[in-house]
Amino acid sequence: MSRSIFHKLLILCMCSSLIGFLMMVMNIGFNCQNVEHQKTGLAKEINEKYKRQMNELEAKEKNINFISKRLDFLQTTLRRQYPYAVDYISQITDDDLPTIYAITPTYTRHVQKAELTRLSQTFLHIKNLHWIVVEDSENKTPLVAKFLERSGVVFTHLNTKTPQYYQLGENDPSWLKPRGVEQRNLAIDWLVKNVDANKEPGVIYFADDDNTYDLQIFHEMRNTQTVSVWPVGIVGGLKFERPLVNAEQKVYAWYTAWKPERPFAIDMAGFAINLLLVQQNSEARFDIKAPRGYIESSYLIKIVKMEDLEPKADLCTKVYVWHTRTEKPKWKQEDILIKQGNPSDPNIEV
Ligand code: UGA
Ligand code: MN
Fold first, then answer.
1. Helical axes 112-123 vs 142-149, angle rounded to 10°
2. Exactly one of 182, 241, 296, 310 is catalytic; which is it?
3. What is the pTM of this model?
């Protein structure tokens, strides 16, 4: 081989290695650029993902704040709610609770609807309450029928008119004749005929339409086994009357100023009876002929002994029911209008 060919070959070799080397360098550069590019892309993506997650987190945090505020509000309202009351979130019935049958005699007068409204809106708070309303009237009146329909309380509507002889005259003092006796007896008839206390446990309570009831009293009476008793406020000319309870937690006497010799010197609002006891004594009723103040005793002596009474309301030291009485409204102006033949609109029910 001649020297010039060898030189040419050497130069060719060097050139190609140079080209190869340049290509390699360029390729590395290109790759680096690519990596750089990928890097920024990834960073952008991560950044966006981060922003998205932050936004989501913020939204979640706002939601949590909102929910916790709502929870706080609900908790305060729940705390304000009476502990034994219907909470309107749950059902008004509870299979584990005996039914309270509240028996209310009532009669037509100017304040009747107002009295029934007050009473029904107390009862709306009580679970498993069945209201037996007995009108002292020849027929059921539309006022009471309509009232009960829209009251929201589970009810039975009955009526029986007090016999003429026992009816109070317009200007008679209220104590002259017994009140609500035949009506309570009719409710007992109904309970004896229509409910089986062996299958459906119950408690009966005589709730006059003009008294005032703390919801606690219904909790106290709910699990009455025989007859439960408690104090009544503003009654018998005293601040309160109450059963007196001894160290064995038994009732032994009555704190009362009026006729303390009565076997059960207690107002109608001061006791409740297990329905089974009522049904076991299915013939027993209140005696309309009983002397004044003896109506309650006339029934209780037939069904229970003093030693079997169950003192409630912290051993009869708390007042949860008041024998309030509603003033007769002044109607003088209305009477004048009636005489003039121009009474207030009779289509507006009061
Ligand atoms: C007191 C007792 O608290 C009553 O339970 C008891 O029946 C009465 O005495 C009585 O000795 O007979 P008092 O406030 O004087 O109660 O009686 P009211 O509230 O006027 O009447 C008791 C219930 O009978 C009420 O629910 C009332 O609406 C009803 N009533 C009254 C009638 O059904 N017809 C009437 O003519 C009068
Ligand atoms: Mn009364």
1. 20
2. 296
3. 0.80
